[in-house]
Amino acid sequence: MEEEILDKDKKTILIVDDEQHIVDILVYNLEKEGYNTLQANDGLTAVDVALSQKPDLILLDIMLPKMDGLAVCKKIRHTLNVPILMLTAKDEEIDKILGLELGADDYVTKPFSVRELMARIKANLRKVELSTNSAETAKEGNTNKIIVGELSLDLDKFEVKVSGEVVDLTLREFEVLKYLANQPGQVITREVLLEKVWGYEYYGDIRTVDVTVRRIREKIEKDTSAPKILITKRGVGYYIASK
Question: How many angstroms separate the first and last alpha carbons of the chain?
């Protein structure tokens, strides 16, 4: 593969899909919007390109030769904490959920609207930018922390501790927990979380939030069947216990 020369002033997006006509459509539209693009047509190449080029965002198809998208997502997540948007077919419901559990930030169903996909990409990149900027601003002042009971979030380091033990969260998981911890005891609906954390109004399957919350619980709760920190208000949403 030829080494691509990228404009360092532009965000770089890695497109991973084995259907070249889809890659061509995405390259055309992304470059028109001012992004650098990288391409991979199989899973092994995707991992190599992602780890060597460190793109700002990855569009990742699930059905890939050599290594499927779920395995690629899991492998990349060990090293990179960039937004991963999975591309799934309409009948791959289980794959959507698995993808989110393995660390994907979002998914888009094929056939997709290019306009909607561009909006999702912008929202995910903007969320990373806002998080980075807030961390840089915090460094200029005192340490910026949220402490609720045994839960502690260091907003400078993007670090979460439960009873003093560091917990490893993805950026999306951190943002969900931060939003809830900023309002302890207040129930937040799934729709509000999607709008405030994912950065757009989401007219689709709100299980994206449920899966992300489940992943957070697996990392911060001693017993996920009886959570003490991140609580469900049945039929409404979620909240952080204010004790």
Answer: 55
Q: What is the pLDDT of residues 127-182, one digit of tens each?
A: 777 666 554 544 444 558 888 989 999 887 788 999 989 998 887 888 899 999 99
Query: Is pLDDT above 70 for 2?
Result: no
Are the C-beta atoms of 219 and 168 separated by less than 8 Å? yes
pLDDT of residue 99 exceeding 80? no
Bond preceding residue 111 cis, omega within 30 of 0:
yes
Burial 133-171 (b: 16+ CB within 10 A, else e): eeeeebeeeeeeebebeebbbbbbebebbbeeeebebbb
Token digits of residue 53? 């080029």
Query: Tokens in use for 94?
Result: 């289980």
- DSSP helix/strand/coil, 64: coil
The token pair at 174 is: 């951190």
The residues, any chain, with a CB within 8 Å of residue 91's CB and separated by 6 or more, are none
Tokens of residue 175, six digits: 């943002």
Residue 66: what residue type? K
